[in-house]
Amino acid sequence: MAKITLDNLAHSYLPNPQGEDDYALKELNHDWADGQAYALLGSSGCGKSTLLNIISGLLHPSQGRILFDDKDVTHAPTAERNIAQVFQFPVVYDTMTVHDNLAFPLRNRGRDESYVAERVQEIARMIGMEDMLKRKARGLGADAKQKISLGRGMVRKDVNALLFDEPLTVIDPHMKWELRTQLKKLHHDFGHTMIYVTHDQTEALTFADKVVVMYDGRVVQIGTPDELFERPAHTFVGYFIGSPGMNLLAAKVEGDRAYVDGKEIPLGGSYDTPRGKVEIGVRPEFVHLTAGEGLPVRIRRVEDVGRHKIVRADFFGTEINIIADEGDAIGADMTRVRFDPGHVNVYADDWRVAPRTRQEEAA
């Protein structure tokens, strides 16, 4: 296991990058704690796999260093970093049995055969392949082969880190849930440092202790699922996390009030007057339809998704989403909307603005 430090790290696929826009991975300075489970989350092309490949040694960064437990491994080959990596598509030895595929990393390091047999049996049980250990990998489907890849990545207990690059792409939905659960159990039992790349927020939020959200080659927030939901540090986080994502409204903010199209919205804190592109963000869970108090809204449609209803509405020319409980009646007289002040975030040029502290207000 290892603490992973990204020191002034950046990467461009161009031979002579001229500016920030030429970098697929913009400058990063982060410490990732030993034994934590992290998910790298973001849309395609945001730099997730680039960063993972730099950590694993498959890619050399254009600038900066990467350290494992404060030891510089920037120029160390993959084999010397003592990591296990599982890729998006299965990598298995077709001519070997499932047992021998799982045993390969242990035998390659000279482990005793009795330990190999015990550990292979344990991992096979974990991935649901106990009855397939004697089968050759050649005749198996893509999902079974990916389970072998996952098992081979997990079979060693002594690795510095386990790296997963969208490993469940070819796995059926039911098995995805099972394998995520097993990965969480593995982390709980053995405390490996784990980094899991995905564009699926459900995978990220259910797997990780901390989620690293990336956007346009940059880490925009590292936080717990609760922190990402309650206090998105960037408008992309608000949009990307949640279903539907955060409502964003162009606004003017003064003190403890925001103004949308000249109409006043109470805030849960007091702010200076933010400059630039100012917006307020509020999640659909904290928007409420009413028949009396609030600001006018026009309902476009209601979608019943089982556990709740999603109300699509027009609010001063901007479409907003409202989540209502399944049992809530939505009558024709519900033409007003109000926001929970304590759950309204303020953004300037896409970055969250913190409310003033009590000391600042008293000064």
Describe the structure.
The radius of gyration is 24 Å and the shape is globular. 38% of the residues are buried. The protein has two domains: 4-240, Rossmann fold; 248-362, Beta Barrel (OB fold (Dihydrolipoamide Acetyltransferase, E2P)). Helix content is 24%, strand content 34%. It has a six-stranded mixed beta sheet, with helices on both faces. A four-stranded antiparallel beta sheet has the order 2-1-4-5, covered by helices on one side. A four-stranded antiparallel beta sheet has the order 11-14-21-22. The protein is built from nine helices and 22 strands. Helix 2 crosses helix 3. It has 363 residues and is an alpha+beta fold. A hairpin with a 2-residue loop joins strand 12 (252-260) and strand 13 (263-271). The two termini are 47 Å apart. The protein has helices spanning 48-56, 98-107, 113-126, 142-154, 173-190, 201-207, 225-230, 235-240, 358-362, and strands at 4-11, 25-32, 37-41, 63-68, 71-72, 83-86, 161-165, 193-198, 210-215, 218-223, 247-250, 252-260, 263-271, 278-282, 287-290, 295-296, 298-304, 308-315, 318-325, 336-339, 344-348, 351-353.
